[in-house]
Design brief:
With 315 residues, this protein is an alpha/beta fold. It has nine helices and 14 strands. The strands form three sheets. It has an eight-stranded mixed β-sheet with strand order 4-14-13-8-9-10-11-7. Strands 1-2-3-12 form a four-stranded mixed β-sheet. Helix 8 runs parallel beside helix 9. It starts with a helix and ends with a strand.
């Protein structure tokens, strides 16, 4: 899929940036290089004052192997550099914000960047170019892709999302309007569940120092069935990941249900005991299009019969 990568690079360059392609780009195995090499390159990029953003093209299935190899004290002392991605990259994005206070962008990855962004949403390129203190609001386009993916090998230059279904946000825990605030944190369930309860995913400590008013937590299922997602969310809740949540946002998913448990039911089974609003079918997961969420930003979510929106402030 190198041709798609080239298209994405040219689009970033068209915004006025110079693109530096890393050395760890071998696509023949499940990782692009040994863990030590990947950790070294990531450290180098995140601490280089000339690099504004680090945006992996794809992947990160086993990126948990990087966590003990990164120099967190050095990252905490460095000038902030944006780290961008979603899905597997939650393994690194979320700990980076929690352990260093550096904001990270959970949005689309580099290979998805050439897609035209639907009205109401923003690309990661819009977010990283914003000045400190910038405030922006996104709202759902109420259209999404119902199934499948574009084949970049066949059409590396595809720019239009196939949004063939209609749907809006859904409150799972009850009826009534929702308005909640707090710093944003979250990511992919299948990734974060593996670090829950470790020092790399301590949302309680983060809330204590950075957001005593509480958090807005978002999660999304990449592909595991409803039983696995239910177990993983129960485990994350027991490990304290949701303890400071004022509300939970849940991404729209194509992950399968079972004969006796849907994905929505799995979320409610695990997170209902939190007694906070739970809003599902948000554009923060594996289903196009993508709503960019900044880990660490101050967030305000509103969901009523008339409007749904997420406002973020970069402070």
């Amino acid at each position: 899929m190198r041709a798609r990568l080239d298209v994405a690079i040219r689009d970033v360059e068209a915004r006025g940036y110079e693109v530096v392609v890393g050395r760890c780009m071998d696509g023949t195995g499940h990782v692009s290089a040994p863990a030590a090499d990947r950790a070294s390159e990531l450290m180098s990029m995140l601490t280089d004052p000339g690099i504004r953003a680090v945006v992996p093209p794809w992947g990160g299935e086993t990126a948990i192997d990087l966590l003990p190899l990164l120099d967190w004290d050095r990252l905490r002392a460095a000038d902030p550099t944006w780290l961008v991605g979603y899905s597997d990259m939650s393994t690194v994005l979320t700990p980076l914000t929690l352990l260093t206070g550096t904001a990270t962008v959970h949005g689309n990855n580099l290979m998805d960047t050439p897609y035209r962004v639907p009205e109401g949403l923003l690309s990661w390129l819009d977010v990283v170019a914003a000045p400190p203190g910038h405030r922006f609001t996104q709202h759902p386009p109420n259209r999404y892709r119902s199934t499948g993916w574009d084949d970049y090998r066949v059409d590396p230059g595809v720019r239009e999302f196939t949004l063939d279904a209609t749907g809006s946000w859904t409150r799972l825990d009850g009826d009534g309007d929702v308005e909640a605030e707090g710093r944003l944190i979250g990511g992919c369930i299948e990734m974060l569940c593996n670090a829950a309860g470790t020092p790399y995913l301590d949302t309680t400590a983060f809330a204590r120092t950075e957001s005593p008013e509480g958090l807005l937590v978002y999660v999304e299922a990449g592909g595991d069935d409803a039983f696995a997602i239910c177990r993983n969310l129960h485990g994350m809740r027991l490990a304290g990941f949701f303890d400071e949540a004022n509300a939970v946002l849940v991404g729209r998913t194509e992950a399968p249900g079972t004969d006796s448990l849907t994905q929505h039911q799995a979320v409610l089974d695990a997170l209902g005991p939190l007694n906070v609003p739970i809003i599902a079918d948000v554009e923060c997961g594996h289903v196009a299009p993508y709503l960019s969420i900044v880990n660490g930003a101050r967030g305000r979510v509103v969901h009523t019969s008339a409007r749904s929106e997420l406002t973020q402030t970069l402070d």
